[in-house]
Amino acid sequence: PLPRDLFAPERRNSEGIDLQDKDTLAAVAKAISDCSGKGPSGAEQGSGLRRSTPSEMVARAQQAYPDWTARPVHERAACLERLADLLEQHRTELMAICVHEARKTIPDALAEVREAVDFCRYYADQARAHLVPIELPGPTGERNVLRHEGRGVWATIAPWNFPLAIFLGQTVAALVAGNAVVAKPAPQTPRIAARAVELAHQAGIPEDVLILAPGGPEVGAALVADPRVAGVAFTGSTATARKIARELLANEDRPLVPLIAETGGVNAMIVDSTALAEQVVQDVVTSSFRSAGQRCSALRLLLLQEEIAESTLEMLSGAMDTLIVGDPADPATDVGPVIDRQAYDNLMGRREATRNSWIKTIDVPAEGNFVPPTAIRLRSMDDLNREWFGPLLHVATWKAGELERTIDHVNAKGFGLTMGLHSRIARSAETVEALARVGNLYVNRSMIGAIVGSQPFGGEGFSGTGPKAGGPHYLPRFCAERVTSTDTTSSGGNATLLSLDDIGF
Ligand code: UN1
């Protein structure tokens, strides 16, 4: 039997709350029921009031940009820190909106708020440390200074699966780097984004420096096509990232601008015969079924060494039997529904199409978008080449002595987000590290829950452009890098710069 803490609390840097505590849970339950009673849902929010057009939003942000970018970096960083504090003060309310709107489980909703807090504090620290003028070595008589400055107005486009953490992470990074931002949440999750933006304004970020742009793909498309937009940060599908890239280059008169894209993956875990079976099963269940498999980091393709395949799958079946699938507002729930009917239909279609190959599936409530967590056997590891964004785990085997070949097959899919290895052989870990073309490699642990600052997250190939979120190279990508080289010699006929005081002005 496996421990019941299959979905142990996620590790984060900021504090959490005790989800075993009755009073805490009662407060969360009350917040969720308050939340259900009031406030517009995603669909309703779009109607009624005439809102500004994307073009008007960009214009306003562009006007507000000069004052914001002229502020010292520590002032902008202080806004992020105040926002982190406000997020913590409103943690229960934000968790409730997240459960209600994104249908996240309570532990996932808590992890979501904590990750958003971590992003704010981390980027504030990073900005103060690195977005300052850097004096570079150079020839005598010359001063060379590298500056990181804002670029103008960024559009940030966020996914529904991390409607607070990624929505805010992208946005506050752009802001602290000295940009104004028009921030577009996913159409499924406008409400938590709206609350986050309110709190950001309360934290001192001027209203026209951060503008919320709720709406569907047409809003994102209008922002991306706007030639005044000086950069785009996007998390979502590979196909949409490609469209954005194409659009950014389409207009001949438009300056070249950066795109930061974090997209999907066909993430594999390779397990050899030396791995600890209990740990493997626990990490497989967490990596493929937590958050109903709706994380781009999630495990999609389990690759078991032939010798241990059947015994591992037997244990996996047993562990899957203990999963509680149901109402995300119930604290006992491990796995909630998927985001909407479209996702449900898509995943159920795949599940039906593979019916003859099921290794294991479990019962779920009939009402609602509950996709049964299912393990599906593949004839070959080459039979999975696209991402199924839900609780469907595909399983294949590999032969002893073919570790390198197995990694090559995974690499050949062209995605490069996360990979896992379970093995007790140091040499195998070195081999995977040397050969795997992925952004995040996880050895003998689960493949989800990257910690801000410790596990910078993001991929390559079809999985994204980088730089990694929550890492030291993220903020500079939002900046223009500018170098000033000044001749400082007073002799030799060179002009010397004098202050206005020096010349008695
Ligand atoms: C995503 O699902 O879009 O490591 C990426 C993790 C998360 C993944 C976020 N930070 O599980």
From TrEMBL:
<keyword id="KW-0238">DNA-binding</keyword>
<keyword id="KW-0274">FAD</keyword>
<comment type="pathway">
    <text>Amino-acid degradation; L-proline degradation into L-glutamate; L-glutamate from L-proline: step 2/2.</text>
</comment>
<keyword id="KW-0560">Oxidoreductase</keyword>
<feature type="active site">
    <location>
        <position position="262"/>
    </location>
</feature>
<feature type="active site">
    <location>
        <position position="296"/>
    </location>
</feature>
<keyword id="KW-0804">Transcription</keyword>
<keyword id="KW-0805">Transcription regulation</keyword>
<dbReference type="GO" id="GO:0009898">
    <property type="term" value="C:cytoplasmic side of plasma membrane"/>
</dbReference>
<comment type="similarity">
    <text>In the N-terminal section; belongs to the proline dehydrogenase family.</text>
</comment>
<protein>
    <recommendedName>
        <fullName>Bifunctional protein PutA</fullName>
        <ecNumber>1.5.5.2</ecNumber>
        <ecNumber>1.2.1.88</ecNumber>
    </recommendedName>
</protein>
<dbReference type="GO" id="GO:0003842">
    <property type="term" value="F:L-glutamate gamma-semialdehyde dehydrogenase activity"/>
</dbReference>
<comment type="similarity">
    <text>In the C-terminal section; belongs to the aldehyde dehydrogenase family.</text>
</comment>
<feature type="domain" description="Aldehyde dehydrogenase">
    <location>
        <begin position="56"/>
        <end position="480"/>
    </location>
</feature>
<comment type="function">
    <text>Oxidizes proline to glutamate for use as a carbon and nitrogen source.</text>
</comment>
<feature type="region of interest" description="Disordered">
    <location>
        <begin position="36"/>
        <end position="55"/>
    </location>
</feature>
<comment type="pathway">
    <text>Amino-acid degradation; L-proline degradation into L-glutamate; L-glutamate from L-proline: step 1/2.</text>
</comment>
<keyword id="KW-0642">Proline metabolism</keyword>
<keyword id="KW-0520">NAD</keyword>
<keyword id="KW-0285">Flavoprotein</keyword>
<dbReference type="GO" id="GO:0010133">
    <property type="term" value="P:L-proline catabolic process to L-glutamate"/>
</dbReference>
<dbReference type="GO" id="GO:0004657">
    <property type="term" value="F:proline dehydrogenase activity"/>
</dbReference>
<keyword id="KW-0678">Repressor</keyword>
<dbReference type="GO" id="GO:0003677">
    <property type="term" value="F:DNA binding"/>
</dbReference>
<dbReference type="GO" id="GO:0003700">
    <property type="term" value="F:DNA-binding transcription factor activity"/>
</dbReference>
